[in-house]
Protein backbone atom coordinates (compact mmCIF):
# COMPACT_ATOMS: atom_id res chain seq x y z
CA UNK A 1 0.00 0.00 0.00
CA UNK A 2 2.72 2.48 0.97
CA UNK A 3 4.73 1.60 -2.19
CA UNK A 4 1.67 2.33 -4.38
CA UNK A 5 1.20 5.73 -2.77
CA UNK A 6 4.88 6.64 -3.22
CA UNK A 7 4.83 5.36 -6.81
CA UNK A 8 1.69 7.40 -7.52
CA UNK A 9 3.26 10.53 -6.02
CA UNK A 10 6.43 10.04 -8.09
CA UNK A 11 4.34 9.70 -11.23
CA UNK A 12 2.35 12.81 -10.33
CA UNK A 13 5.59 14.78 -9.94
CA UNK A 14 6.90 13.38 -13.23
CA UNK A 15 3.68 14.40 -15.00
CA UNK A 16 3.78 17.92 -13.58
CA UNK A 17 7.48 18.29 -14.41
CA UNK A 18 6.95 17.02 -17.98
CA UNK A 19 4.13 19.50 -18.58
CA UNK A 20 6.09 22.39 -17.03
CA UNK A 21 9.16 21.67 -19.19
CA UNK A 22 7.03 21.64 -22.34
CA UNK A 23 5.20 24.82 -21.35
CA UNK A 24 8.58 26.48 -20.66
CA UNK A 25 9.54 25.85 -24.30
CA UNK A 26 6.45 27.83 -25.22
CA UNK A 27 7.28 30.59 -22.76
CA UNK A 28 10.79 30.90 -24.21
CA UNK A 29 9.33 31.18 -27.70
CA UNK A 30 6.68 33.67 -26.58
CA UNK A 31 9.33 36.07 -25.29
CA UNK A 32 10.43 36.57 -28.89
CA UNK A 33 6.93 36.37 -30.32
CA UNK A 34 5.29 39.01 -28.12
CA UNK A 35 7.84 41.67 -29.01
CA UNK A 36 7.32 41.17 -32.77
CA UNK A 37 3.60 40.44 -33.13
CA UNK A 38 2.51 44.04 -32.66
CA UNK A 39 5.05 45.55 -35.04
CA UNK A 40 7.18 43.47 -37.48
CA UNK A 41 4.64 40.67 -37.89
CA UNK A 42 1.88 43.18 -38.67
CA UNK A 43 3.85 44.46 -41.67
CA UNK A 44 4.05 41.02 -43.32
CA UNK A 45 1.80 39.86 -46.11
CA UNK A 46 0.03 36.76 -44.80
CA UNK A 47 -1.81 33.95 -46.57
CA UNK A 48 -5.60 33.85 -46.65
CA UNK A 49 -5.77 31.02 -44.12
CA UNK A 50 -3.73 32.89 -41.50
CA UNK A 51 -5.68 32.79 -38.21
CA UNK A 52 -5.98 35.86 -35.98
CA UNK A 53 -3.03 36.30 -33.61
CA UNK A 54 -5.13 35.57 -30.49
CA UNK A 55 -5.64 31.95 -31.63
CA UNK A 56 -1.99 30.95 -31.35
CA UNK A 57 -1.53 31.32 -27.58
CA UNK A 58 -4.36 29.00 -26.45
CA UNK A 59 -3.61 26.46 -29.18
CA UNK A 60 0.07 26.26 -28.26
CA UNK A 61 -0.69 26.10 -24.53
CA UNK A 62 -2.95 23.09 -25.12
CA UNK A 63 -0.41 21.46 -27.45
CA UNK A 64 2.41 21.86 -24.92
CA UNK A 65 0.21 20.25 -22.25
CA UNK A 66 -0.52 17.30 -24.57
CA UNK A 67 3.20 17.03 -25.32
CA UNK A 68 3.94 16.94 -21.59
CA UNK A 69 1.40 14.19 -20.97
CA UNK A 70 2.76 12.28 -23.95
CA UNK A 71 6.38 12.37 -22.82
CA UNK A 72 5.29 11.48 -19.28
CA UNK A 73 3.58 8.32 -20.56
CA UNK A 74 6.88 7.27 -22.13
CA UNK A 75 9.01 8.39 -19.17
CA UNK A 76 6.95 6.43 -16.66
CA UNK A 77 7.79 3.22 -18.54
CA UNK A 78 11.23 3.46 -16.95
CA UNK A 79 14.34 5.55 -17.53
CA UNK A 80 16.37 2.36 -17.25
CA UNK A 81 15.07 1.27 -20.66
CA UNK A 82 17.29 2.29 -23.59
CA UNK A 83 14.28 2.79 -25.89
CA UNK A 84 12.68 5.16 -23.39
CA UNK A 85 15.86 7.22 -23.04
CA UNK A 86 16.29 7.43 -26.81
CA UNK A 87 12.65 8.45 -27.31
CA UNK A 88 12.94 11.16 -24.66
CA UNK A 89 16.20 12.48 -26.14
CA UNK A 90 14.54 12.74 -29.56
CA UNK A 91 11.55 14.40 -27.89
CA UNK A 92 13.99 16.87 -26.32
CA UNK A 93 15.47 17.59 -29.75
CA UNK A 94 12.07 18.43 -31.21
CA UNK A 95 11.27 20.58 -28.16
CA UNK A 96 14.48 22.57 -28.73
CA UNK A 97 13.63 22.96 -32.42
CA UNK A 98 10.15 24.08 -31.40
CA UNK A 99 11.48 26.81 -29.11
CA UNK A 100 14.12 27.96 -31.59
CA UNK A 101 11.53 28.41 -34.34
CA UNK A 102 10.07 31.45 -32.55
CA UNK A 103 13.54 32.84 -31.95
CA UNK A 104 14.38 32.54 -35.65
CA UNK A 105 11.04 33.69 -37.07
CA UNK A 106 10.07 36.42 -34.61
CA UNK A 107 13.39 37.26 -32.95
CA UNK A 108 15.59 37.26 -36.06
CA UNK A 109 12.75 38.16 -38.47
CA UNK A 110 13.83 35.36 -40.77
CA UNK A 111 10.95 33.42 -42.36
CA UNK A 112 13.37 31.51 -44.63
CA UNK A 113 15.54 30.11 -41.80
CA UNK A 114 12.44 29.55 -39.69
CA UNK A 115 11.06 27.46 -42.55
CA UNK A 116 14.25 25.37 -42.60
CA UNK A 117 13.86 24.97 -38.82
CA UNK A 118 10.19 23.97 -39.04
CA UNK A 119 10.99 21.27 -41.60
CA UNK A 120 13.56 19.84 -39.16
CA UNK A 121 10.97 20.19 -36.38
CA UNK A 122 8.33 18.35 -38.43
CA UNK A 123 10.75 15.49 -39.16
CA UNK A 124 11.80 15.27 -35.51
CA UNK A 125 8.14 15.10 -34.41
CA UNK A 126 7.58 12.20 -36.81
CA UNK A 127 10.70 10.51 -35.44
CA UNK A 128 9.45 11.09 -31.87
CA UNK A 129 6.03 9.67 -32.71
CA UNK A 130 7.63 6.60 -34.28
CA UNK A 131 9.74 5.96 -31.17
CA UNK A 132 6.84 6.67 -28.80
CA UNK A 133 4.57 4.28 -30.70
CA UNK A 134 6.86 1.37 -29.83
CA UNK A 135 6.63 2.27 -26.13
CA UNK A 136 3.14 3.71 -25.57
CA UNK A 137 0.59 4.13 -28.35
CA UNK A 138 -1.46 6.71 -26.43
CA UNK A 139 1.67 8.86 -26.15
CA UNK A 140 1.83 8.87 -29.95
CA UNK A 141 -1.84 9.71 -30.39
CA UNK A 142 -1.49 12.66 -28.03
CA UNK A 143 1.06 14.12 -30.48
CA UNK A 144 -1.29 13.95 -33.49
CA UNK A 145 -2.78 17.44 -32.88
CA UNK A 146 0.78 18.74 -32.56
CA UNK A 147 1.99 17.33 -35.88
CA UNK A 148 -1.20 18.58 -37.57
CA UNK A 149 -0.70 22.09 -36.16
CA UNK A 150 2.99 22.13 -37.09
CA UNK A 151 2.01 21.01 -40.60
CA UNK A 152 -0.37 23.98 -40.79
CA UNK A 153 2.29 26.25 -39.28
CA UNK A 154 4.71 25.02 -41.95
CA UNK A 155 2.26 26.13 -44.63
CA UNK A 156 1.91 29.53 -42.93
CA UNK A 157 5.66 29.92 -42.55
CA UNK A 158 6.31 28.95 -46.18
CA UNK A 159 3.58 31.28 -47.42
CA UNK A 160 4.88 34.22 -45.40
CA UNK A 161 8.39 33.59 -46.68
CA UNK A 162 7.24 33.46 -50.32
CA UNK A 163 4.82 36.41 -50.03
CA UNK A 164 7.43 38.66 -48.41
Low-confidence stretches: none
H/E series: HHHHHH
Q: What's the domain count?
A: 1
| Measured distance between first and last alpha carbons | 62 Å
CATH class: Mainly Alpha
Largest sheet: none
Residues in helices, as a percent range: over 70%
Q: Tell me the name of the CATH homologous superfamily.
A: TspO/MBR protein
**Arithmetic mean of pLDDT:** 94
Structural class: mainly alpha
Write the CATH architecture name.
Answer: Up-down Bundle
Q: Overall 3D geometry? A: elongated
Number of helices: 6
The fraction of residues in strands falls at under 5%
The tally of beta strands, per DSSP, is: 0
> What would the CATH topology be?
Ferritin
Instruction: Please state the CA-atom Rg, rounded to the nearest Å.
Output: 17 Å
Please tell me about this protein's structure.
With 164 residues, this protein is mainly alpha-helical. It has a single domain, classed as Ferritin (Up-down Bundle). The chain is built from 6 helices and no strands. The radius of gyration is 17 Å and the shape is elongated.
Secondary structure blueprint with pairings:
Blueprint: H1 2-37, H2 53-75, H3 82-107, H4 111-133, H5 137-141, H6 144-163
Task: Briefly characterize the structure.
By secondary structure, the protein is an all-alpha fold. It contains six helices and no strands.
What structural keywords apply?
164 residues; mainly alpha; Ferritin; 6 helices
Amino acid sequence: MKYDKIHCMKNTYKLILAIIICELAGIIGSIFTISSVSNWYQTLIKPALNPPSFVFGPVWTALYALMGISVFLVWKMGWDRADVRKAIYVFGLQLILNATWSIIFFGLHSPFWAFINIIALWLSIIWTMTLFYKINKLATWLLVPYILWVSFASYLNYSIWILN
